[in-house]
Amino acid sequence: MSLSPMPLRPASHVQVLIAGGGTGGITLASWLRKLSPQLEIVIVEPSPFHDYQSGWVLVAGGFIAPEDTRRAEREVLPEGVALIQSKVVGFDPDHNAVDLIGGRRLGYDVLVVALGIELNWTAVRGLAETLGHHHVTSIYSRPMASYTRRCFEEFQGGTALFTQPATAIKCGGAPQKIMHLAHQQFAARSGVGVNSRILFCTAQASLFPVQAYSDKMVEIAARHHSEVRYHHDLVAVDGEAGLASFRLQEPGQSERMDTIHFDLLHVVPPMSAPPVVAASPLAVRPRDGDPGRASGGWVEVDPHTARHVHYGNVFAIGDVGSFPTAKTAAAVRKQAPVVAANVLAVLEGRPLDPAYDGYSACPLITNDHAVMMVEFDYSKQPVSSFLMNPVKERWFAWLLERFGFPWIYWNRMLKAQPHEATYLKPFAGLARRLGLMRWQA
Ligand SMILES: Cc1cc2nc3c(=O)[nH]c(=O)nc-3n(C[C@H](O)[C@H](O)[C@H](O)COP(=O)(O)OP(=O)(O)OC[C@H]3O[C@@H](n4cnc5c(N)ncnc54)[C@H](O)[C@@H]3O)c2cc1C
Questions:
Q1: Domain holding 300: CATH number?
Q2: Is there a domain that residue 331 lies in?
Q3: Which residues pair with 271 in a beta bridge?
Q4: What's the distance, CA 423 to chain centroid?
Q5: Is 171 one of the catalytic residues?
Q6: pLDDT at 230 > cutoff 80
Q7: Whose CA is nearest to atom 7 of ligand 1?
Q8: Do 328 and 426 fall within a single domain?
Q9: Are residues 81 and 151 in the same domain?
Q10: CA 343 to CA 307: how far, in whole Å?
Q11: Same domain, 177 and 222
C-alpha cells in the first residue's frame, strides 16, 4: 500500500528531525506517531529503498529471493511523516540545525541521529576491485548476497575462508552464520564436503563478547570441523591469485603477516561511524587517559536514555549510537519506544526514562534447521525473550529466523507494534525475579 506523506511546510524548521530512514529511523518515527499523532516529524534519507538487511543471509543461503528483502522507502514511511530524499552533510547542534546536500539547512527542536554504520570496503587493499569476482564475496552488500549463493553453488572443494574485522560491526553473529550455512551446503553435496576446508579468521580474541555464547560457538565450529584463527586482521586480498593477507596481532608477540590461499573468500569489511558524524560535535570526544574512545566517532549518548551527553535535544538510535552493546535491529526494536518516550519528554519538559537495558540479539544460524537465539543485555549475560534457554540451538528459533522475523520486521517492528514475545514479558519478569532467567550453555 502506498502512503501519501504529509506535505512539508515551507519553513525549514521542524519539531522532530530524524537523520536516516533505515531500521532505526522508520521504527522510531512509527513510535513517535503512535505516542503523539500530531507531532511534526521529518525524515532525511537519500535512498529510495528500505532494506531488511538481516535477510541477506537468507538470500545467500537460498531460502528467500533478494526482492523479499527490499521495499520502497515511501511504502514503509509511517502515515503523516514527511520524507526529504536528501543526505545530511553536516551537524550543527550548537545552532539546532543540520546541513543537507545542495546547501539546504534544516532547523529542529529535537534531532534523532539514525545514520547507521559505515562499511569501509576500501580499507582492505584490493578488496573493492575483486569483490564480486574470483569467488570473493560478502553478505554485507545486497547484490553480493546473491553472488554468495552462486559462490557456494560453484564451490567444488578447496579452502573456503571467512573473515571478521577488528572493528565494531553490525550483527556480530552474521560472519559465523554464513560460514555455518556454507558448511551445511558443502556437506550436502557429494564429494565437496570431504574435499573442503573451512577456515574462520577473526581479528578478535574470541568468537563473541558474551562468554557463554562464545564457548558454545567454539563448540559448534569444532563440530563442523571448521578451523578458527584469532587475532587475524585481513589487510589485503588478491582475488586472481586467491590470496588473503592478514596482520597478526597476538598479545605479547610482535606483529607479523600471514598469507592464506583461498578458493572462496567471504569478507566482513571493517566498519566505522559515518564520517559526517565522526567529524561533528556529536561524536564521542577524546578523554584524558582514554584516547581510544576518540576513534569511535559514534554519537555520544547516555546508554540508558539514548540522549546525547552534551546536547539535551539530540538523541541517537541504532548502530550510530555509542551504546556499549551489539549493533543490531533487535537492539533498535528495544531502543525505539524508549527514545520516542524520551523525545516527547524533552519536548514537554519532563524527566527522561532510563529504560534501555542494552538488549541486543544476534540469532546464530548453525544449519538450515537450527538457530541459537544469542540474546543478551548490558550485563553481558544471556537473557531470553522466549522463556527458553537462548544458549541452545533450536528448530523453533530457526522457524522464527526464517519465517517469523522477516514478517515481524515489516508488519510489527516498523509499524511500532509489539513483538509477539512482548506478551511473555510479565512471565519473563517473574522468572527473572525468581532467578530462573540466567542461562548458561
Ligand atoms: C548481513 C547482515 C545481517 C544482519 N543480521 C541481523 C540479525 O540477524 N539480527 C539483527 O537484529 N540485526 C541484524 N543486522 C543488523 C541490522 O540490519 C542493523 O543493526 C540495523 O539495520 C541498524 O539500523 P540503523 O537504523 O542503525 O541503520 P540502517 O538500517 O543501516 O539505516 C541507516 C540509514 O541511514 C541512511 N543514511 C546514511 N547516511 C546518511 C546521510 N548522510 N544522511 C541521511 N541518511 C543517511 C542510510 O541510507 C540508511 O537508510 C544485520 C545486518 C547485516 C548487514
A1: 3.50.50.60
A2: yes
A3: 119
A4: 25
A5: yes
A6: yes
A7: 54
A8: no
A9: no
A10: 9
A11: yes
C-alpha neighbours within 13 Å on the C-beta side of residue 67: 0
User: Could you tell me if residue 4 is inside a domain?
Assistant: no
Question: Is 440 inside any structural domain?
Answer: no
pLDDT at residue 290 greater than cutoff 80? no
Among this protein's residues, is 201 annotated catalytic? Answer: no
Q: Do 156 and 218 belong to one domain?
A: yes
Ligand 1: distance of its center to the CA of 172 in Å?
13
> What's the confidence (pLDDT) of residue 85?
97
| Secondary structure class of 259 (helix, strand, coil) | strand
Please state which of the ranges 189-198, 341-350, 417-426, 431-440 shows the lowest mean pLDDT.
431-440
pTM of the model: 0.93
Cα(319) to ligand 1 centroid in Å equals 7
What nine digits make up the cell of 105?
Answer: 539547512
Lowest mean pLDDT among 2-16, 53-67, 180-194, 337-351: 2-16
pLDDT band at 439 (very low <50, low <70, confident <90, very high): low
C-alpha cell at 285: 570526544
CA 135 to chain centroid: 24
What is the structure's pLDDT at 96?
Answer: 97
Alpha-carbon distance 77 to 430, whole Å? Answer: 37
Spatial separation of the C-alpha atoms in residues 183 and 15, rounded to whole Å: 51
Over residues 14-25, the pLDDT tens digits come to: 999 999 999 999
Q: What is the mean pLDDT of residues 272-288?
A: 87
Residue 53 Cα to ligand 1 midpoint, Å, equals 7
Q: 404 in ligand 1 pocket by Cβ < 6 Å? A: no
Report which ligand 1 atom has the smallest distance to the Cα of 331: 11
Residue 105 forms beta bridges with which residues? 99
Round to whole Å and give the CA distance between 97 and 169. 29
Average pLDDT over residues 252-280: 96
Which residue, 235, 268, 301, sits at the end of a domain?
A: 268
Based on the structure, what is the number of domains in the chain?
3
Which one from 110, 139, 169, 171 is the annotated catalytic residue?
171
- Domain of residue 404: give its range: 361-433
Q: What average pLDDT does this structure show over 119-127? A: 98
Which of ligand 1's atoms lies nearest the C-alpha of 319? 26
The pLDDT assigned to 7 comes to 42
Q: Is residue 6 part of a domain?
A: no
Q: Quick one: 385 and 402 in the same domain?
A: yes
Q: In this structure, are 319 and 389 located in the same domain?
A: no
Of 47, 56, 118, 319, best ligand 1 pocket probe by most atoms within 8 Å of the beta carbon = 319
